[in-house]
Hints:
Residues 6-96 form the Fibronectin type-III domain. The protein is 6% helix and 48% strand. It has helices at 2-10, 104-107; strands spanning 14-21, 24-30, 41-48, 55-63, 67-69, 81-89, 92-93, 97-98, 114-119, 124-129, 132-136, 142-144, 152-159, 167-173, 177-180, 188-197, 202-203, 210-213. The strands form five sheets. Strands 3, 4, 6, 7 and 8 form a five-stranded antiparallel beta sheet that branches. Strands 13, 14, 16, 17 and 18 form a five-stranded antiparallel beta sheet that branches. It has a three-stranded antiparallel beta sheet with strand order 1-2-5, with no helix packed on it.
Amino acid sequence: VLENQDLQDSIKPQKVEFHSLNFNTTLHWQPGWAREARDALYFVQYKVYGQSTWQNKDECWGISSHVCDLTHETSDIQEPYYSRVRAALAGVYSSWSLSCRFTPWRETMIGPPMVTVVHSNKSITVKLQAPRSPYRRKRGSKISMTNYYDLLYQVFIINNLLDEQHRVLVYEGKDKVIKIEDLRPGVSYCIVAKMYVPMLDRSSAYSSRQCTVL
């Protein structure tokens, strides 16, 4: 029995955490500390905070992976969720490892916008598109993250003559098309943008650079 108890403890999953980007939500964990733990199989359950019964996640029942997609299970984005994982090896089951509480609306990270740049001789027109969630409208198109939050675009310009690292904020607001004027012909400029969530005081990462020479 003692050996079983040791095995149970040594294969118990560690660091059970939700990761979420634009409501694409996965549960991640690390294997137990025993060397044999790499051969363990994992079982995932989830529930809404306050519910008494745990639900099995069928696609993550007896898996060897250390990640489980719970996007569909956490689609009520204002609700707080928990998840838990246990491991099994050689007929021995570990106890459950519990995640922290996870509320998608508060905790999902918002991705950067898509940026398209069109130039003329003294100006740059920037077209912006907010990231989309995994959830779909009845007609099938994915719902924009702007449906869930009051989002602002932040647009920065980098003048490559001056300093590659120096980003100047040139626009903050909701317009999807903006024009940056009075720029110098023959100079290389790059544009990057972020999404900003005023209510949570949080920003996305920067978009990839879109560069152009006027």
